Amino acid sequence: MASRILSGMQPSGLMHLGNLLGALENWKTLQTEHDCFFFVADWHALSSNYADTSRLKEFTQELLIDWLAAGIDPNTSTIFIQSHVPEHAILHLLFSMIIPIPWLERNPTYKEKKEEITEKDLSTYGFLGYPVLQAADILLYKPDLVPVGKDQLPHLELTREIGRRFNSLYTPVFPEPKEYLTRFPKVLGIDGRKMSKSYHNTINLSDTEPTVRQKLKTMVTDPARVRRTDKGNPELCPVFDFHKIFSPDATRNQVDTDCRTAAIGCIDCKRQVADVMVERFSPMWETREKFSANPKQIQEVVEEGRKRASTVANETMKEVKEAMKI
C-alpha cells in the first residue's frame, strides 16, 4: 500500500530555481509512488507578511502555475489551498488550547527569525504559534511521511509532540508521521549567495528566456579572473555550480578544463550554461503560458483538490471531536 505524503509551500513570493531543485523535483518523483497531498500554505504566509497582503492571491496563483508546469499532476496528487479547507483552522484552534507556551518559545526557527528579520514586527501570536498551525496542517491528513530537510526536523518533532499530547489527554487519534529526508541542493543566486527571495538574487521560474540570459550575464564568477587571460578555478565560480546541475558531463568537463587554462572566458561560460538551462526550461515555460492563459483550469484543479482534501479532513475532525467529547 502506498504511503501518504504531505507537504506545502508558502506563497510569499515568486518561485525560483532553488524551489524547483530543492522541492518540486522531489515531489514529482514522489507522486508516482505515493498518495501525495500538496497544499499552498496561504495562511502561513500571514505569520510574517500580515501587514501587506496585496499580492497574496497573485503569488498563490503563480505558485500553482509553477507547480503544474513543473510536472505536479493533479490527476495523481491532491493539490489544494490551505484556506479553502477550514478544518486546518479548527484543528489549529483546538491544538492551541493544549500546547504549553515554552514548547513554542524554544523553537529554534522562532528565535533565529526574530533576530534576523528586524524590518517586521514579529511579536505576534501568529508568528509564535505558526508551528501549531503547521502541526494541524500535517496531522489533519495523517501522513506516513513528510518531506523535510535536516533543518526542519525540529518542526516535525514538535508536530509529533503535539499529537502525542492530544492522544494522551484524550484518546489516540494521531499517528506519528516520519520524516522523509530529502537532499536539498544548495543553489546559488546571481550574487554568489544562497538563492533567496530576501536577497533579490533569484532566477524565477516565471522569468522569460531573455530575463534568464540577462541575469546569468550579470552573475558573479571566480574573483581571481579579472582579465580574459587570467586562469580560473571553477570550484570557486557560482556559474560552474549551474554547469554541475544542468550541463552534460562532456560540457561540464570541457568547461572545467578551459576555465583552468583560460581557453574560455566568463562570457562564453555563461552563454553555454544559459543555453542548456533554456533547453531544460523551455517545455516548462510553454506549459506555464498555457495555464496562465486559462485561469479557469487552475480553479478547477484546486476545487477538485479541495474536495479530496476536505473528505480526509472531515473524517479526521470527526475523530477529534469524538475524542474530546465536543
Instruction: Please bin the fraction of helical residues.
Output: 40-55%
Structure summary, number of beta strands: 5
SSE order? EHEHHEHHHHHEHEHHHHH
DSSP summary: helix tally: 14
Beta-strand content estimate = 5-15%
Structural class call reads mainly alpha
**Alpha carbon gyration radius:** 22 Å
Strand order of the largest sheet: 1-2-3
What is the makeup of the main sheet? Answer: 3 strands, parallel
Topology, please?
Elements: E1 4-9, H1 17-30, E2 35-40, H2 42-49, H3 56-69, E3 78-81, H4 87-96, H5 101-105, H6 108-116, H7 125-128, H8 130-139, E4 145-148, H9 153-169, E5 178-181, H10 209-217, H11 238-246, H12 249-260, H13 266-292, H14 295-324
Parallel strand pairs: 1-2, 2-3, 4-5
Helix pairs in contact: 3-13, 4-8, 8-9, 10-13, 11-13
Describe it for me?
Helix content is about 55%, strand content about 5%. It contains 14 helices and 5 strands. It has helices spanning about 15-30, 40-50, 55-70, 85-95, 100-105, 110-115, 125-130, 130-140, 155-170, 210-215, 240-245, 250-260, 265-290, 295-325, and strands spanning about 5-10, 35-40, 80, 145-150, 180. Strands 1-2-3 form a 3-stranded parallel β-sheet. Helix 8 (about 130-140) crosses helix 9 and helix 10 (about 210-215) packs antiparallel against helix 13 (about 265-290).
